[in-house]
From TrEMBL:
Organism for this UniProt entry: Colwellia demingiae
HTH gntR-type domain sequence ranges: 10-78
Annotated family: In the C-terminal section; belongs to the class-I pyridoxal-phosphate-dependent aminotransferase family.
Pfam families reported in the protein's UniProt record: Aminotran_1_2 (PF00155), GntR (PF00392)
SUPFAM superfamilies, per database record: PLP-dependent transferases, Winged helix' DNA-binding domain
Alphabetic keyword roster: Aminotransferase, DNA-binding, Pyridoxal phosphate, Transcription, Transcription regulation, Transferase
Protein name in UniProt: PLP-dependent aminotransferase family protein
Any one Gene Ontology molecular-function term assigned to this protein's record: transaminase activity
PROSITE patterns hit by this protein: HTH_GNTR
Amino acid sequence: MKLLDKSSSAYLYQQVIDFIEHQKKIGALHPGDKLPSLRKLSRQFDISVPTVKQAYIELERQGQVCAKPQSGYYLQAMQARTLKPRPAKWAQCAPVEVQGRSMIEQVHAAVHLPNTVALGISNPIQAHPPDKALARLMRSVLSKVSEKAVSYGPVTGDAKLRMQLAFRYQDQGVEINPDDIVITNGAQEALSIALQCVAKRGDIIAIESPCFFGIIELIETLGMKALEVYTCTEDGVCVEDLAEAINQHDITACLFSTAINNPLGSMKTDEQRQAMVSLLEQHDIPLIEDEVYSEIYFTDNKPKPAQLYSEKGLVMTCSSFSKTAAPGYRIGWLLPGKFEEQAKRIKRAQSASTPMLQQWTLNEYLLSGDYDRHLCVLRKTLTYNCERMRALIAEHFPQEVCISKPLGGSVLWLRCQSHVKTGEFFQQALAQGVSFAPGAIFSPSGKYQNYMRVSYGVQWGEDVETAVKVLGQLVYEYTGKQKAAQLLEEK
């Protein structure tokens, strides 16, 4: 396909630039979109790769595109106001019982509403579902195991799957005996078991703030109290803040996501993670690490598990395949550290075992190498979606709205103007076919009223873009109503 005029006096690379600018003008390319690869455009226009690269470099110099290592060139997004670490001292909270259960129920219910774009739930694999590969493997497994598939399995789970998980942790330097791993019904059961291993009703559990609402609700269900510890938008929980909280409160255990926090997408460095574990073990305080997003990182290397730095066995690691492969399988696991016997006893009493067919299928998935290939594509897709979503929000929300810049995961954390209460227009959004997660449910004390969480773990399409525009318009409308009400009061 020859679209360039090689007889023209204009340089060929300039014609490529003109083509890209025309695509922007007619709406074929949007801020945050990935440009065609150098080879693809060179074939399309029958020109050399260096000519296309020269055009892209010039567009980059002009600030119209940006290059991303090992990913390609992207149309520059509108400048989004990025959330920054706190400018001043964050007010330390007292331990509290959980609020906001009603809104949590509404957010969960919205996932299953027909004709609704579900931006309120974090389900990363929607961006690149491996359902066909898993269905094929499950059929193969089922043909071999037959009646065994409906029988009870071992309390701690399938030995082969535990072996595969142990290998993966050993690759990161964590020496794990497969017999120590407990397979669970999703990460939520792993977290529940871990909490029951180290705490009882009335005990204080330190959590991140903001914190995934499922953790907050779990702590409430177990009759424990949550203590919010400030969490930086970039590095997670600050060790100095944690030390202060330990000095002020009788903390029984900590439950943190040191790899990828939900909803911030923050990530601690390995050095910071090691310092945190050292501090906690000095005080004999167990750390429960929720690392369900650890495979969805946008950095060069996967974050190391906190358990790597434990010398006393006080770190417990909870994870699952729910965010990376199959949420419906409900397969998670727990590395219980020194609490192995308690964990196995609680698992036996709580659910006896975990469905075997799904475990066998996932074991085959890991063995085949398809899982790691899937993760590679998933990470690239989510990185791309993240940039597109940030660009869309910057374009359609008020300019005062600040947006997180996550280092992984599948969600963005938005801070609206201080007077905006996002929970107040949640139902309006649902009425227009869009769900999101209001910020207040990410705090046991009801903080973050003017925040919202939006997921980019989606199959990208026009419906997603329309949904973001709807949310932006609702924020504009809410702001307008508040200003009008304020003017009436002044009169």
